[in-house]
Amino acid sequence: MGHIISIASQKGGVGKTTTALNLGIAFSSRQYRTLIIDADPQGGVVFSLDRGRQHYDANDHHRGLYHALCGEAEINEIARTTEFDQLFVVDCGIANSVIDVQAFEEATRASGLLREIIQNTMQYFDLILIDCPPGVGLITNGALIASDYVVIPLQSEPLSLRTLPQLLRQLIEIKKTSNHAIEIAGILITMFDTLNPVSKTVTEQVHTYFNDDLVFQSLIPRDPQLHRLYSGSMSVKELIKEIEPTSIGLQAYDELAEEIEKKFLRK
Ligand code: ADP
Ligand code: MG
Hints:
Blueprint (H helix, E strand, L loop, with lengths): L2 E5 L8 H14 L4 E5 L5 H7 L14 H5 L5 H4 L1 E2 L5 E4 L7 H10 L5 H7 L7 E5 L6 H9 L2 E7 L8 H14 L5 E8 L6 H13 L14 H4 L8 H8 L4 H18 L2
Helix pairs in contact: 1-2, 1-12, 6-7
The structure holds adenosine-5'-diphosphate and magnesium ion.
The site of magnesium ion has 4 residues, from helix 1.
């Protein structure tokens, strides 16, 4: 049976989408048939992965999660191929307008619906990663109810720990009421900067407040090359080929995939 992992955090800009994208690529190259559900209406994952598609048209609106939630399609029918063999992607299926985002959120309101439509598609994938929007709103809530595990990226900057309690409270509530099985796979320290003492302080604080098994050993360093994954026009596959020899970020994500595989996927 496959596994479902949400990438979630209260705060935006901490590396959720970068994590979803890189884990998706790392696991697909480890021969996991992997689906990334881009549940963020901003669509960062899809924006990156679609660049490598032939005949890609940014104005082409696809059916996505919204349509699956409305009962118009199964997720496996709308999952699109990417330039990576074993990697598939589903987007929200909406334009990023206020009205559409509201409709999408409403569609996720029915508690457990997202879980149901994802479960229906599990037989087709070994691993499903859900890239959540920032915050603990309806979409994130639905994703957490659907998930076996959550990865919580935490940017190594002052005060970042302050944003954790809200998500943790929500996780406890979800575990009590609607998804007893959910586990924190780990807090993931991102954008770690060896030259900045704050990074070290934050990392020490995380280890003071949380048991070691709740914090990933893998640290994601600050690596400007990672930013290129969703900017520019080069396909992600081409770009990875170019930066692989020197990117400490890519290397760290590969180690993270290995850590997750060893800890959770080989049970
Ligand atoms: P989120 O999905 O949590 O909003 P993103 O993954 O979109 O966060 O990252 C926010 C910004 O930080 C993006 O511009 C991204 O390219 C950049 N970024 C993410 N991770 C790293 C990293 N390890 N090193 C450098 N820049 C990063
Ligand atoms: Mg994001």
